[in-house]
TrEMBL record:
It comes from the Bacteria. This is Uncharacterized protein. It comes from Vibrio vulnificus.
Length: 24
């Protein structure tokens, strides 16, 4: 799966970007 390709840190960073978008 694509998730396996992502590093754990990269996943958290991507998730953080999504959270920031929702906050805005």
């Amino acid at each position: 799966m694509l998730l396996n390709s992502f590093r754990h840190d990269d996943f958290r960073y991507f998730k953080t970007l999504i959270v920031r978008d929702f906050e805005i």
